[in-house]
Amino acid sequence: MLPWNYGFEWNASHVIFLGAFYTVLVVLATTVLHAMWRSRRDLRQRKTEEIRWESDFHDLPSRDRVCRHALTGEFGSRECPHGFDCRKCETHARRWIETDAPARGAEEEEIFGMAFPLDRFYHRGHTWARPEADGTVTVGLDELGQRLLGVPDAVDLPEPGARVRVNGTAFRIKKRGADVRVLSPVDGEVVERGGEGQGWYLKVKPESHGEPGFGHLLRGAEVRPWLLREMERLQLALTAEGAAATLADGGVPVADIAASYPEADWDGVCGEMFLEP
Amino acid sequence: MDKEFIARGAKRCPGGKFLLWLLPWALLLGFGLYAAGLCLVLGLNQTNMDNRFAFGLWIFLDLTIIAFGAGAFFTGFLLYILKIGELKAVINSAVAIGLVCYSGAIAVLMVDVGQPLRAWFTFWYPNVHSMLTEVTFCLSCYLTVLAIEYLPIVLKNRRLREVPSMLVFEHELHKLIYVLAGVGTFLSFFHQGSLGGLYGVLRGRPFAFREGLAVWPSTFFLFILSAAAVGPSFILLTTWMAEKISRKKLVRPEVLRLLGRISGLLLAVYVLAKTLDTLLWLNRTSPERGFPAWQYYSWRPFGTWILFAEIVLFGVLPALVLLTPRLRARTGWLVSAAAMACCGVALNRFVMTVQTLALPTLSFDRFLSYYPSWQEVGTFLAVVAYGVLVYSFSFRYLPLFPEERELKVEALAEEEELAAAGRY
């Protein structure tokens, strides 16, 4: 049948069958080899974190991929098509006049007893980024993130000199069986490491080319509607992961939420809230 | 103990309970492997097949599970080529089922053919006049496609995703999945057809022989149609069973209804084609070869009831149920109709395999009865056990139903809304 073996003849039926068979084999081999080649290229170009987020974002339920402009009520409903990176979004660019520096000395939002200072930008994965006078950016966990993780069991911070990327892993925190990867709000190089006691985790020197862009992060009037939605998500996540009825109207989250729900699967709750499905 | 391998937020039973569920299937698999081992070591004298009854339980099983496994290629075709996005909810499960069905079928074929160490002969010394050659080539190629399609699902496992090279490879392979879906559709169409064609070209067996188009007898097309029709029904059935056994909502009811509608539509086309084909065969093909068709049905137990059951009871009836929106909306009807459609195709494969060989064709022939030996039954059960085991592991550790968690949260949100409405 095959040209080099028993019984093969150069006639139409043999050639068509053989051609189809070989085409299939070639397509399969090419597909796998192409995927391997692209994977190798991605690894060399250090795209792992970008791909991890792309994959995670794709796996998020649609209700968690809501556009920031839908949160503020500008749209009835809209899913973010850019993985929460509004720097690529034309719709956002049309609706937003970017100001990279939030108003200094601005007040703070108090939502459910939690303080959200408005001198910084907020990432949907519960981190904040505050531009400093020396050109660096301080990165920390917002108050809801802090209350979710309470006193961490372990914190794994990147070494100074390491690079972090927007929506890539900034650092990892372990808490009661949950190994949480916390998303970075900025691109840049880590210059200093903080910790839970210092109120911040990383100081990052933004990417050298151009001014650091914060257009993809939430700010000012966007923080309240986002947080209100996050509280709803938390309520659902807690119930889904086996906690009893939660957050009576008017109540505020305790300082260490994990400790208050020993029966809940904390890994599941943190996965939901820190956007890691 | 295995929590870190289970998808985040997915609730699975404790490890001990899972092992308890696996135990009987593992024992059954062990028993089946022993039976298959006997057949491989001692030969086909361990079976009740002979030179006349060369196809038995195993070939019936092969044809049936390959038809059921068609859900994998057909769902892939609908999702990736025709872009019916709702089917994303069941595609991973469909691929797992396809892999189980095809690998199980090939394993049984290996036992049936024997001499596994010479399996490569089929590629090196193929019989160019045999449709079985096309079947072998297509089956092995499509199993490779399914294995490659299954790979990204395995690499989605929570622990494996932690390895950067695996995460990246899964991502890149998934981007090319539409190529695999296209190749799978091409291969699956051809080998489903070839399996049907195998019977349609049996000139010495007028019960199975059919006229057709060019070199393809009508059974070539009927097998493709019936497999495409029953594939979505089998996915529907297995999803429903997985929901019942795990006591979890895994997909939206609309997805099951969509599968039912697709299956019903194709089943209606199949039943129509099958009816026309049967009428043509009864009134022309068979009489022209000197065999009045009524005589095939005078051999008990294969009376005309089997024709009625195949076309009306398990064909027209489920097609009507699946095509009626009001009935389709009720889970009981939907699932029963899907099960009936599966029974219909299984019965068709039984008729083509067992009834064809049981009927006498020469004047000195006699009607043959065939009962599988325990070794044949054991091997059959091994495939069933293997399927349950692979699917159980896949369900526990892989994201077979990606909307599972979302559905759970949505249900809770609805409950909370209702509770809130009650409060105020």
Structure description:
The complex is a heterodimer of chains A (277) and B (424). By secondary structure, chain A is α+β, with helices and mostly antiparallel strands. Chain A contains eight helices and eleven strands. In chain A, the strands form three sheets. A six-stranded antiparallel sheet of chain A has the order 3-4-5-11-10-7. In chain A, helix 6 (223-240) packs antiparallel against helix 8 (266-273). The radius of gyration of chain A is 24 Å and the shape is elongated. Chain B is mainly alpha-helical.
Tell me the count of domains of chain A: 2
Q: Give the strand tally of chain A.
A: 11
Residue share in helices of chain A?
A: 25-40%
Distance between the termini of chain A: 50 Å
Please count the helical segments of chain B: 15
- Give the end-to-end Cα distance of chain B, rounded to a whole number of Å: 44 Å
Can you identify the CATH class of the largest domain in chain A? Mainly Beta
Spatial sequence of strands, sheet with the most strands of chain B: 1-2
User: What oligomeric state is this?
Assistant: heterodimer
Give the count of helical stretches of chain A.
8
Please, what is the average pLDDT of chain A?
A: 86
Output the keywords:
heterodimer; A: 277 residues; OB fold (Dihydrolipoamide Acetyltransferase, E2P); 2 domains; 3-stranded antiparallel β-sheet; 8 helices; elongated; B: mainly alpha; Formate dehydrogenase/DMSO reductase fold; two-stranded antiparallel ribbon
